[in-house]
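Quick one before lunch.
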Amino acid sequence: MKKPNVVILGAGYGGLMTTVRLQKMVGVNEANITLVNKNDYHYESTWLHEASAGTLHHDRVRYPIADVIDRSKVNFVKDTVVKVVPEENRVILENGELTYDYLVVALGFESETFGIKGLKEYAFSIANVNAARQIREHIEYQFATYNTEEEKRDERLTIVVGGAGFTGIEFLGELVNRVPELCREYDVDPHKVRIICVEAAPTALPGFDPELVEYAVNLLERKGVEFKIGTAIKECTPEGIIVAKGDEVEEIKAGTVVWAAGVRGSHVIDESGFEAMRGRVKVDPFLRAPGYENVFIVGDCSLIINEETNRPYPPTAQIAMQQGEVCAKNLAVLIRQQGELQPFKPDIKGTVCSLGHDDAIGVVFGKKVWGSKASFMKKMVDNRALYLIGGPSLVMKKGKFNFL
Ligand code: FAD
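Model of the flavin-adenine dinucleotide complex:
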């Protein structure tokens, strides 16, 4: 019998989890497994705010894909996916083409700017390792340049963060620790630095427990963050941003604008003609794209409805990894033509939002946590993700053990 070709696109949480689980389940002679990713490394997207602020080196947030795949079973292709042609079971890459019997699309998230003028051109977004490195370098450049100019431009030292959601708050938590270091390093008066967070919703961290939100906002304000809640970014310009609260319009001059208020699924989803909302496909209970029984979609490119609230689950690494496990099981069923497909049901264990390396807030197994206890849990969550993909050796290499 011909060995089926299984092609997995993307080596983020969803794609890599699918790959490492599948390589354990099937033998060399049962399937040809190909994993495609644009880099030869995997990065922990959930740590990118640290690399962006410069509190964690970017090499700490990534590891070689070769370290976790079994090369006797998985063929790794370093390339960029251009589009999928699902009617012909083909994937078009920048440098070639692949055909498949079963496909997993796990190409993750991209920044969503909702058409706000100038954001794409002038704002940064915490999207991947390259973007994180650029944000860190850009902020450092502003501090390094400040004292070299005869006429000091204080706005160089203003950093605007668009969005007080999960990513925005985690990034602010790192920034407030990084800025004092930068001030010392470049002889900058800390009073000249402004960190402003602009959020259109009526609260920071919409949907989070209000007591925990208050804890986070108070802590960040104490460390110098100015919140502009209920305020929308109308435009981003080379000089900063224009915001509006009701009828009041204000220009904020800033050397750095980081947009952290929206993500969408990969543009490849739209290019490939899948029915989607902002690059996210509403998958069937077995994680398949409607109309294509051999195409699975996991992670941020998929959309799953929470039946209790009748709203989509927010895209998270937690869900992407759980989907990867189920997807691998379902692929094994199809490869062997034995057994039954398993429906996917998210098992949400909790959410922890970091506020720098030593503080956090969260709800874990239904209990509220904050402070150093929450921070400890956050590191445990981060280490667990490493463990699930690469076992204890990956945790030893890349894990977070600075618990104090
Ligand atoms: P990703 O992890 O984004 O991986 C996609 C992979 O595909 C990447 O390797 C990428 O290089 C590759 N790729 C993309 N396009 C192409 C292409 N065209 N060709 C080839 N390869 C391509 N979630 C949580 O659960 N908890 C958290 O605490 C948390 N914190 C976060 C903090 C930050 C700063 C951010 C940005 C996100 C956070 N998230 C968190 C969300 C989480 O990171 C995402 O939900 C998760 O990464 C989605 O996993 P994925 O497998 O779908 O995609």
